[in-house]
Amino acid sequence: MMAVVVVALVFTAWMAVVAIVKGRVPSGVGRRGVHPRMWGYGTLLFCAGVALFQFGSSVRGNTAGDVVFGSGAAVFSTGCVLRYRSVRPADPVPVPAHGCSDAPEA
Predict the structure, then answer these.
(1) What would the pLDDT profile of 48-79 be if each residue is shown by its tens digit?
(2) How far apart are alpha carbons 54 and 68 in whole angstroms?
(3) According to the 3-state scheme, what is the secondary structure of 22-91?
(4) Are 70 and 76 in contact (CB under 8 A)?
(5) What is d(CA 69, CA 55) in angstroms, rounded to the nearest whole number?
(6) How far is CA 2 from the centre of its chain?
(7) Cβ-based burial of 47 (10 A; exposed 0-12, middle 13-18, buried ≥19)
(8) Predicted model pTM
């Protein structure tokens, strides 16, 4: 099971490096309005957080394991926030031209 996680993390980190260097995101992520470099940095932090989760669960000693696991949670959360913020907001609703509004004039 650990090998599957490592392979998935390496593949995801590779996609993040491509996004940072080339400015392109994979086609499944290629929604309109994605900032590729920010998405790449967020994905790298996401992968690092998952790796720290995995490593923190195998560290002997309560204090050391808790510190590694807690830092993994912080890095993971930061990566998730960056990935969320990398998507541009949708286009605003167009404002109707003068005289086209249904609202009564004052």
Answers:
(1) 999 888 887 777 777 877 888 889 899 999 99
(2) 9
(3) HCCCCCCCCCCCECHHHHHHHHHHHHHHHHHHHHHHHCCCHHHHHHHHHHHHHHHHHHHHHHHHCECCCC
(4) no
(5) 8
(6) 22
(7) buried
(8) 0.74
